[in-house]
Amino acid sequence: MLSYPTIDPVALQLGPLAIHWYGLMYLIGIGGAWWLARLRLAGFDPTWSRDKLSDLVFWVALGVIAGGRLGYILFYDLGSYLSNPALVLKVWQGGMSFHGGLIGVLLAVWWFARRNNKRFFELMDFVAPMVPIGLGAGRIGNFINAELWGRATDAPWAMVFPTDPLQLARHPSQLYQFALEGVALFAILWLYSRKPRPTMAVSGLFGVCYGIFRFLVEFVREPDAHIGYLAFGWFTMGQLLSLPMILIGAGMMLWAYRKQERNA
């Protein structure tokens, strides 16, 4: 069994102002996405200025934060937030939903595409390879917060998390998700998007790969205590939300390539 490297969730204390690692991870994710977007901008639209790119990153980041928070409230813990609305503002304590954040990103990209005479999926294909940077950073934030840990296991790399009331050795599922949703997904999308692809294909591949990775990790991740298992007493909320992503993503790729063949 490995020892959990206890890290103070507060990275820096400046008087009454506490800067949390969780928030810093979001800044790292947004900054990394902006840097990558700059590298890919010339191949996407050489007429775009850096200011326009910064505007895009700003709106996408806003979609991630607002959508992620709202998605967590609606999908995972509506009762707690209705009884204590002040919890909405305490984002440093965690409580972000990827699927809610994805909806926020889709809305932000749709709005930005309309204002800049771009097709929605043309812009989404540009944005998709940048998303894993934020996903990976967010999972490191979950690990530092000692939240969203995995199920009990006797694996030699298991850890006991200080926030676990049962103090069981568990899968460090946050690190699994960092490796899959962050590193692996980034590599797949980066390599795939280096060559010209039919519009919608990159976005579809993102949906397929993320959905599969998330669905698999949920088998070793402890479900939220107040939700537990849902369908058939086995599947989790994360799995139920990921299944449509896999199916829709596969359909998008199929549609994109068939459309390309018809237009060839």
Automatic annotation (TrEMBL):
It is a multi-pass membrane protein. The keyword Calcium does not apply. One of its GO terms (cellular component) is plasma membrane. GO terms for molecular function: phosphatidylglycerol-prolipoprotein diacylglyceryl transferase activity. It is found in: Cell membrane. Keywords: Cell membrane, Lipoprotein, Membrane, Transferase, Transmembrane, Transmembrane helix. The chain crosses the membrane at residues 19-36, 56-76, 96-113, 120-140, 175-192, 199-217, 229-257. Pathway: Protein modification; lipoprotein biosynthesis (diacylglyceryl transfer). GO terms for biological process: lipoprotein biosynthetic process. The keyword Magnesium does not apply. Its EC number is 2.5.1.145. A 1,2-diacyl-sn-glycero-3-phospho-(1'-sn-glycerol) binds at residue 139. Catalyzes the transfer of the diacylglyceryl group from phosphatidylglycerol to the sulfhydryl group of the N-terminal cysteine of a prolipoprotein, the first step in the formation of mature lipoproteins. Belongs to the Lgt family. This is Phosphatidylglycerol--prolipoprotein diacylglyceryl transferase.
